[in-house]
Design goal:
Number of helices: 5
Radius of gyration: 20 Å
Helix content: 25-40%
Largest sheet: 6 strands, mixed
Distance between the termini: 75 Å
Shape: globular
Order of helices and strands: HEEHEHEEEHH
Structural class: alpha/beta
Length: 174
């Protein structure tokens, strides 16, 4: 009987230790990334999921992936963020769920008009913190990407420096 109790306690202890080492996001606490060995980076974490396409045109799929990829690139240049990369074929992977904040969106093109919907979700609460719909002529694509990056950076918790704000504003205007 005592050997059985000891065995159960060892198994439970092993489960708790193993589970705590594999969790990338703490169940509670600050909105910062915790590494597997427990070090805190002090950075907010965000994942940009590949944007969905509304329509069947294969070119729209490339456009949607390009927009989400550029957005991830822009956000990774912000010193207060850590962008966790997600591949297009595994948007619901454990890596994607490790980030505190998740950005998702959709892209729709009709003739020369481009409509993009962007959402910012708190992954712990599934609360939608912000969303925006942008509808412009397709020829304004670079300006649209700039607007998405700036707007999203403004709505992510934490701070963005004036220098970073200027860098986002200039990215597509030079």
């Amino acid at each position: 009987l005592i050997a059985g109790i000891v065995l159960v306690l060892i198994a439970a202890g092993t489960y708790v230790v193993t589970r705590s080492k594999t969790s990338l996001v703490p169940a509670s606490g600050p909105d910062v990334f915790d590494t597997e060995d427990g070090r805190k980076t002090g950075l907010l974490t965000v994942t940009v999921l590949p944007f969905e396409t509304v329509g069947t045109d294969e070119k729209e799929g490339y456009l949607a992936r390009g927009i989400s990829s550029d957005l991830a690139t822009d956000l990774s240049g912000l010193s207060s963020l850590r962008v966790i990369s997600v591949s297009a074929d595994q948007p619901n992977s454990q890596t994607a769920r490790a980030a505190r904040y998740v950005v998702s969106g959709s892209v729709q093109r009709a003739a020369d008009t481009l409509r993009i919907n962007i959402r910012l979700i708190d992954s712990r609460t599934n609360e939608q913190l912000w969303s925006q719909r942008i509808e412009r002529p397709f020829g304004d694509l670079l300006a649209i990407q700039n607007e998405i990056s700036r707007s999203l950076a403004e709505h992510l918790p934490g701070t963005i420096s004036d220098a970073e704000r200027k860098r986002l504003a200039k990215r597509y205007t030079n």
